Amino acid sequence: MKFGKGFSAVLVMSALLVAVTGCQKEGPAEKAGKSVDQTIEKAGDSIKDAVDGNKK
């Protein structure tokens, strides 16, 4: 009985470790997505600044 619980705990911890280490590396799609997000955010800030400049 104790072996089964211990084995289950080790199995779960191993799966979590693999999942966490697998998420550490950024692939080309993630890098491209971040770049697009940054570009859109900068464009939004520029539009907001332009609108705020017209209000003055």
Mean pLDDT: 80
Mind telling me the C-alpha Rg? 23 Å
Our estimate of the beta-strand percent is under 5%
- Assembly classification: single chain
Number of helices: 2
User: In total, how many beta strands?
Assistant: 0
Looking at the structure, what is the overall shape?
rod-shaped
Describe the structure in your own words.
The protein has 56 residues and is mainly alpha-helical. The chain has one domain. It is 88% helix and 0% strand. It has helices spanning 2-22, 28-55. 0% of the residues are buried.
Give me some keywords for this one.
88% helix, rod-shaped, single chain, 56 residues, 0% strand, mainly alpha, 2 helices
What is this entry, summarized?
With 56 residues, the chain is mainly α. It has one domain.
